[in-house]
Design a protein that fits this description.
The protein is an all-alpha fold. It has one domain (13-45, 54-212). The chain is built from eight helices and no strands. It is globular, with a radius of gyration of 20 Å.
Length: 219
C-alpha cells in the first residue's frame, strides 16, 4: 500500500480499489497537515519597535498558541501516521472520520489568526482550544474505531501498542478542554498533572493490563 499508485500495475479490481482508497486518503492527509503547519507559522506577526523582552511579552499568548498548535498538530500527525502504517485497508466510516479530522486541521491557521488579531486570552483563545480539543476527540474516535472494527489493523500490531495509542489520543481532549474555562496563566497547573497522569498510565498501567490480557483489542 505504500507504493505510488500506477495504472500500469496489474492487480485484481478489488485490490486496486482498496489500494487506491488508502493511497489517496493518505496523500490528502499529509498535504493538509503540511499546509496547516506552514500557514500557522506565516501568521506569526509580533509587534515592532519594542525591546525583545517587551515584544515577547506582548506576543506571549500568540506564541503560546502557535507553539501549542504546532506541537499538537505534530502529535496528531504522528498518531495518524502510526495508524496508517499499520492499517490493512480503510473503509467508509474511517474515511469520514479522517475527512472530519482534516476539515478541522485545515482551520488551525485561521483559529490562530483570530488569537493574533484579538490578542486575547478570552473568547478567541477558548475558540482555539475548542477547535484543538475537537480534533483530539476525532483522533481518539479514529483509534477507537480501528480497534473495534476487525480487519482494519494488521493482526501483528501488539496489544500494548493498541492500548497505548488509545490512551494517548484520549488524553489530548482532557488537556485541551480545560482551557475553555481556565485562564491561560493558570493552564500549567491543570495541564501538568494531566500530562503526568498520561505518562504514568502509558508507562505502568498499559504494560500491566496488556501483560494480563494479551488478546486485548486483537483483530
Amino acid at each position: 500500500m505504500a507504493e505510488a499508485e500506477s495504472l500500469a500495475q496489474e492487480e485484481p479490481l478489488e485490490a486496486h480499489i482498496r489500494r487506491h482508497n488508502y493511497d489517496r486518503l493518505l496523500m490528502l492527509s499529509d498535504g493538509v497537515f503540511a499546509i496547516a503547519t506552514t500557514l500557522a507559522a506565516i501568521e506569526i506577526k509580533l509587534p515592532h519597535g519594542e525591546t525583545l523582552g517587551a515584544m515577547l511579552s506582548s506576543g506571549r499568548t500568540q506564541l503560546i498558541a502557535y507553539l501549542l498548535s504546532f506541537a499538537l498538530t505534530a502529535v496528531f500527525w504522528i498518531q495518524h501516521r502510526d495508524m496508517f502504517a499499520r492499517l490493512k485497508r480503510v473503509d467508509q466510516p474511517l474515511t469520514v472520520l479522517t475527512l472530519a479530522l482534516l476539515c478541522l486541521v485545515a482551520a488551525i491557521p485561521s483559529a490562530i489568526h483570530v488569537v493574533y488579531a484579538e490578542g486575547g486570552t478570552g473568547a478567541p483563545f477558548r475558540y482555539y482550544a475548542l477547535l484543538m480539543g475537537i480534533i483530539g476527540l476525532i483522533s481518539f474516535a479514529m483509534w477507537a474505531y480501528v480497534l473495534a472494527r476487525k480487519g482494519l489493523l494488521d493482526p501483528a500490531v501488539p496489544a500494548e501498542f493498541r492500548l497505548r495509542r488509545l490512551v494517548t489520543t484520549g488524553m489530548a481532549p482532557l488537556i485541551l478542554f480545560p482551557a475553555l474555562v481556565v485562564p491561560v496563566d493558570r493552564l500549567g497547573f491543570v495541564i501538568l498533572p494531566i500530562a503526568a497522569l498520561a505518562l504514568l498510565v502509558r508507562r505502568m498501567l498499559v504494560p500491566w493490563i496488556t501483560a494480563r490480557h494479551p488478546q486485548l483489542f486483537s483483530g
